[in-house]
Fold:
Amino acid sequence: MVLESAVMAFPIDRPRRLRRTDALRSFVRETRLSPEGFVYPLFVCPGKGVRKEVRSMPGVFNLSVDEAVKECAEVKSLGIPSVILFGLPESKDEVATGAWADSGIVQQAARAIKREVPGLLLMGDVCLCEYMSHGHCGIVTGQEADMSKEVAEFIRDLEAQGKRTVAIPQPKPGGATSATAVATASMVAAMAAENYEILNDPTLELLAKTAVSQARAGMDIIAPSDMMDGRVGAIRTALDDAGFQNTPILSYAAKFASGFYGPFREAADSAPHFGDRRSYQMDPANLREAMREIELDLEEGADMIMVKPAMPYLDVLHEARLRFDVPLAAYQVSGEYAMIKAAALNGWIDYERVMMESLLCIQRAGASVVLTYFAKEAARLLA
Ligand code: PBG
Structure:
């Protein structure tokens, strides 16, 4: 075999020969870290002249539209090709009006950035959690959170149009009869919190509306991050029907229910008020299921796929790179950023070195596109 004849033993073979000098090391380097696939996340909020630092993400800000425009000009001048927009709406409700309204905060920002910073690729994160009063990524109903008037009206509307609205019942951990066990107060509370449903199919309607309104506002790429079943197909159809056949979809295809999103939820004010996201985001233990999620999204029409988070999931990223021949993105999420920042601020690590190594390794594992809060700092070092 080629491999056998190529590998000789010491002292003939000395791998250190190619590591002797900077020139040699750079000559044989397999992965070259490049900002050409960087995407910089922005959190847009109402107001004017607002630049509010996120407590758990030093260097990351909530920006009003005017400030976001300035930020984008800087991003572009650093050679970063793209930004992804998240929104902090003026108000929230149970049908995520702020997500799909043409006057929504993200839509306003997209229009202004398109006008002032042409040429920057604008990516819209399509999700509802930032715009829902309860912080979940879909429509919530259940015995505890009785169906609100807004939701009831919306469901009635869908039914009148002959659309599917039936919830798929979700199993309750421990089973409904586990009350016979000795239950602590916190267990009872946890069980009560399971007493709700995230409605899949009605949520698709809102996601599709959100995607269309984002495309209308000038988004170049639509990136659904909600993890509802069937969202890519629903969004593709809606975009096509609205005349946006050429707007690509980057699907957060393998998005795990991760503790690493903590700081983001502070930045975007999107933490769920009860329960968690485990009935829609993926179990961190499952690589095979991630491959299936990706496959399904591609079948539904995704043009690009994403694995998220990045560093704890490099095996998932690598497997996706081997299996699928579409552009592959990774999201180095808020918790990954916060950990490196915090250790650096304590003087425990060499900040620049660790930041660059983390990005290089994500690219080595297979991501050609990297969403990262380090984009600006890394691009400066690479210039
Ligand atoms: C919206 C969304 C989240 C992130 C990106 N889009 C939060 C979540 O799913 O809870 C996380 C990004 C990050 O942590 O940097 N659903």
User: Anything to note?
Assistant: The chain has a mean pLDDT of 91. The chain is about 40% helix and 15% strand. The CA atoms of residues 70 and 113 lie 9 Å apart. The pocket of PBG is lined by residues 125, 127, 129, 137, 225, 261, 264-265, 270, 277, 333-334 (CB under 6 Å).
